[in-house]
Amino acid sequence: MKNDVWPLVHAERAALIEDLAHLDDKQWDHPSLCEGWTVHDVVAHLINTARTTRLGFVSSMIRARFDFDRQNARGMRRERGASPQETLERLRQVASRTSAPPAPLDTRLVEEVVHGEDIRRPLGITHSYRPEAVVRSLRLQARTSASFGGAKEKIAGVQLAPTDAGLSIGDGPEVRGTALSLLLAISGRRDAWGELDGPGVATLRAAA
């Protein structure tokens, strides 16, 4: 994708920093939508991904024996500060970075939008994402293989029909919902299942 992704990424990072600045320590320790990770852990993960470079990604994958989960866990632990305040300051320091792993640049949007909701939803925080950021994230997840963190195989046989965007993705019975709800659902967030409807929902859920 083009470099026009970065203003969208930076805007979402800034918005998340603003929301995090109002949390108390108990909220930082609250479970996120990422299984086994707290809000604090997810923020540390976002710092790690913001620091990631192409060479650094390859090196870390080799050290993790090409295990994405192990690589992510190590990066999260490395960037998690001794306190929420320390971790938040680290996020501020990387908020304007434009480094990325060897992947489409729109993966940076997926990180910010999906993990933003991983943090906000359990805490009851609402945020109005820029429509372009959500739609671009949804398109990327829909065409990316599961082996690279996407949902291409999962959505085979259904049509994603965002109710707030003029597009459809795929062929088959419709799955309707906002672009954000669809993005979260195909990204493995069960919290969004209740926000979908249409004849394709059962097929999509069966593939989850």
Which helices and strands, and how do they pair?
Blueprint: H1 5-20, H2 25-28, H3 39-51, H4 54-63, H5 68-79, H6 84-94, H7 107-123, H8 131-143, E1 159-162, E2 169-170, E3 174-177, H9 179-186, H10 201-207
Parallel strand pairs: 1-3
Antiparallel strand pairs: 1-2
Describe the 3D structure:
It is a single chain. With 208 residues, this protein is mainly alpha-helical. 53% of the residues lie in helices and 5% in strands. It is built from 10 helices and 3 strands. A 3-stranded mixed sheet has the order 2-1-3. Helix 1 packs parallel to helix 7 and helix 7 packs across helix 8. The longest helix is centred in the middle third of the chain and has 17 residues. The chain is globular and about 50 Å long. The mean pLDDT is 92.
- Report the sheet with the most strands, covering strand number, pairing sense and barrel closure: 3 strands, mixed
Helical/strand content category: mainly alpha
Give the rounded overall mean pLDDT.
Answer: 92
Give helix and strand order, one letter per element, not per position. Answer: HHHHHHHHEEEHH
What is the CA-based Rg, rounded? 17 Å
- Percent of residues in helical segments? 40-55%
Q: Total number of helical segments?
A: 10
Biggest sheet: strand arrangement: 2-1-3
| Terminus-to-terminus distance | 27 Å
Beta-strand proportion: under 5%
What is the overall shape?
A: globular
Beta strands, count: 3
Poorly predicted residue ranges: none
